Amino acid sequence: MLFRKKMLFVLIIFNIVTLNAAEEFGSSISKEKRLIYTNVAMSVAILGWGYTQWNYTQQSFRFSDEGWFEKESDEGGADKLGHLFTNYTITHIAASLFESWGYSTEDAALYAALSSIFQSVIVMELGDGTGAGYGFSREDVIADIVGSLLGYIWYRYPSISSKIDFRVEYAPDLNKKISSDLTTDYESMKHLLVLKASGFELFRDSYAKYLELHMGYYGRGFYHGDSNINNRDQYIYAGVGINLSELLAPYMGSYSKFFNYYQMPYSYLQKSNNY
Q: How far from 211 is each of 93, 261, 270, CA to CA, in Å?
């Protein structure tokens, strides 16, 4: 199914519920109960929204075969990378919150990944299986789980996250009408892995620490499957960029970590290959 506003909704609900939980429960509630209450609240919110907005329970359970990166698929795989990236990010947000509640880094990462998988797969995807116009997508499930597992590994092992980022870039064409749903504007997105020189001791005391290497993917001309297959293009690209998180850290502090997840457009040079 289309990535649509659904995963963005989950991200917003997660932040609202968990942050409120942290404030309301206070120290009188154990971290274990906070974890349970937070997941229950999220599940209720998702199922309630799914029933009223996504037609949950309106059909018998069915599967949906959406494909992966084939040109015949609706999004050329960009929606699957969207699922992967969102669960990766949610896992990091949750792990940071759980750690602030008193969990160890290891446990916070584990419970965050499990929470992300539970909400996206058990609650949402199973709900989609009964939603009119949707269906249970095995491809979405795999992308959700992989994203959560990557989020766990990156958070659990700083030696990896200091060297490699998983990011999304959003750069709409200002000469065209900007989509009202940014979460599905795949024509303006790229997903990429980034190797950061700052994560290697060899470069930490030199200007080279501000450099990074990119490897990414994007599709153009798919328009949610409403275009002629001959007009669809898929690109793999490599690039060299500036590590904005490292560069801006002295001025933005921890807020510069935003650029570990978001790739600023036009801050790198790239070479693309249309395959």
A: 26, 16, 14
Q: What is the pLDDT of residues 193-239, one digit of tens each?
A: 999 999 999 999 999 999 999 999 999 988 876 778 888 999 999 99
Kindly report whether the global pTM for this prediction surpasses the value 0.90: no
- Angstrom CA distances, 196 to 199, 237, 271, stand at 6, 17, 18
Angle at 201 between CA 107 and CA 215, to 5 degrees: 75
pLDDT at 7 over 60: no
CA–CA separation, 225 and 170 (whole Å): 20
Alpha carbon distances (Å) from 114 to 24, 25, 89, 90:
23, 22, 13, 11
Find all residues with CB under 8 Å of 82, minimum gap 6, and list them: 3, 7, 168, 183, 186, 189, 191
Q: How far is CA 114 from the centre of its chain?
A: 15
